[in-house]
Specification:
With 239 residues, this protein is α/β, with parallel strands linked by helices. It contains eight helices and twelve strands. It is globular.
Length: 239
């Protein structure tokens, strides 16, 4: 793991906690060091503070994504506005934790990110998403529902003829909704399938990702596909 945090006390405390949890941690103090270390020894996962001197965490994220680096990135941020969190998703981050944070939440989010990037083996195959339930799914690797097409193997998705530019988390959220098109998925189920952990009713994480995914799906005045079922969750359907 590569950890970049300019606050010395937070960096040392988090490095110690992660090491005790079993991670091999390389900790640096700014974005310049983070980029240099990522190029020198590519990590399995990055934890980046947003506000750092010189090159901040968002810029580190943008540079790595522009280079084609798809390593999972967890952002640490004290910025609480939704627009700030969306900026992190725009930069290519996979998830975020708000400061001050509970270290157990950091552990849970890291486990979820690493699970999603662990190659499937006979031993791990049992934890894959269940087979498609809807008859609209005509192939295990190509899904069709509500005018959407998803090539799971190539990690590409289209609405009609328009290809969608999706982050890793957006793609996995859309895949879950497509596989269950017409079925209402409650918040807990979505959290468990996508993040591997239910962050509770106070978390806005899911709402942020759904809103961001809607913006990409519903461009150019297209009818909304992801519908909110108040107090329950979300469903993908054409009205």
């Amino acid at each position: 793991m590569l950890l970049a945090e300019d606050d010395r006390a937070i960096r040392h405390a988090l490095e110690r906690a992660l090491t005790l949890e079993g991670y091999a941690v390389t900790a640096v103090a700014d974005g310049v060091e983070a980029l240099a270390q990522a190029h020198r020894t590519p990590p399995d996962v990055l934890v980046l503070d947003v506000m750092m001197p010189g090159i901040d965490g968002l810029q580190v994220c943008r540079v790595l994504r522009a280079e084609g680096d798809r390593t999972p990135i967890l952002m640490l941020t004290a910025l609480v506005e939704t627009a700030d969190r969306i900026a992190g998703l725009d930069a290519g981050a996979d998830d975020y934790v708000l400061k001050p944070f509970d270290v157990e939440e950091v552990f849970a989010r890291l486990r979820a990110l690493l699970r999603r990037t662990t190659p499937v083996t006979p031993e791990t195959a049992a934890v894959e998403l269940p087979a498609p339930r809807t008859p609209q799914v005509t192939d295990r690797q190509v899904l069709h529902a509500a005018g959407l097409r998803m090539d799971i193997r190539a990690r590409r998705a289209w609405r009609g003829v328009r290809e969608l530019e999706l982050t890793r988390t957006e793609f996995e959220l859309l895949e879950l909704l497509v596989r269950n098109a017409g079925t209402v998925l409650d918040h807990s189920t979505i959290y468990d399938r996508i993040w591997g952990y239910d962050f509770g009713p106070g978390s806005k994480n899911l709402a942020v990702y759904v809103g961001y995914l809607r913006r990409k799906l519903d461009e150019q005045g297209a009818p909304q596909l992801i519908h909110t079922v108040r107090g329950v969750g979300y469903v993908l359907r054409e009205d």
